[in-house]
Design brief:
Length: about 250
């Protein structure tokens, strides 16, 4: 059985209202896409978005849409991931070619009963997406908090009418994709342009959120020594001598 989305479903019917409420924020910061997805233990989901064009490709192609609940999800902290970093090439390719989303970032937060995936995307190609999104995380978190408060009526409408995903559309492995894929992002180091790997970026991102090496190792299923190796390797490659300077590389858009 394939994923079926009725034309009368609130996710589609409310897209214009969602667009109206978030258009000022998105326009101010250069984004053109907002998605608020809530996923449940039984394989169902509730979703809001200002642009439903991507949904029809999910419906037509029957590939996983990264929204399966797993029992250990609620034990993990909230975190961000970049689309290029953790999503397979096909959804990213479709987003770019069909819906004018060049780069995206998703915030994941968990609870015992459900988890949310809240995404934003850019319509343009940018030189250093990792640094760009690092500089935007606090602003995006503010907007998520604002939408939690000011979009309660919209959220309730889709929560009251969840969509049950067929097995073919479910996936529980999106988080591990980051560490399995050999993806490199360009960054501007002290000695010129270099790169950061997905593994290194995962460590840096958690470091910026205040986690120590032991906590990062636990969250990423690595050893503390491996975490230190990733960070030292990145510092050496970029010509940066301290953790503080390394954080600065990701704190602004070049």
């Amino acid at each position: 059985m394939s994923f079926i989305l009725s034309k009368n479903h609130p996710t589609l019917q409310l897209s214009e209202t969602v667009s109206e409420r978030c258009q000022d924020f998105l326009k101010t910061h250069g984004f053109n896409y907002f998605q608020y997805l809530r996923c449940y233990k039984n394989g169902s989901m509730s979703g809001l978005t200002n642009d439903t064009s991507l949904l029809k490709y999910f419906v037509e192609l029957d590939f996983p849409i990264f929204s399966s609940y797993r029992e250990d999800h609620y034990q993990r902290p909230s975190y961000w991931f970049f689309w290029d970093e953790e999503l397979p090439w096909l959804p990213v390719k479709i987003a770019r070619e069909k819906s004018n989303f060049n780069h995206g970032v998703t915030f994941v937060r968990r609870s015992p009963l459900c988890y949310d995936m809240i995404a934003f995307a850019l319509p343009i190609q940018i030189l250093n997406p990792a640094s760009f999104y690092m500089s935007k995380l606090k602003t995006l978190e503010w907007f998520i908090h604002w939408f939690d408060l000011n979009g309660k009526d919209l959220l309730q409408a889709v929560i009251d009418d969840p969509l049950l995903l067929p097995e073919v559309n479910r996936d529980m492995n999106y988080q591990s994709l980051c560490l399995e894929k050999k993806i490199q992002f360009p960054i501007q180091g002290a000695c010129g342009e270099t790169y950061v790997t997905a593994q290194e970026l995962s460590c840096v991102r958690l470091k910026m959120q205040g986690y120590g090496h032991k906590d990062i190792a636990r969250l990423l299923s690595l050893s503390p020594r491996t975490v230190e190796t990733y960070l030292m390797r990145l510092k050496r490659r970029s010509g940066i001598s301290s953790h503080a300077d390394l954080m600065k590389v990701f704190s602004h858009c070049p």
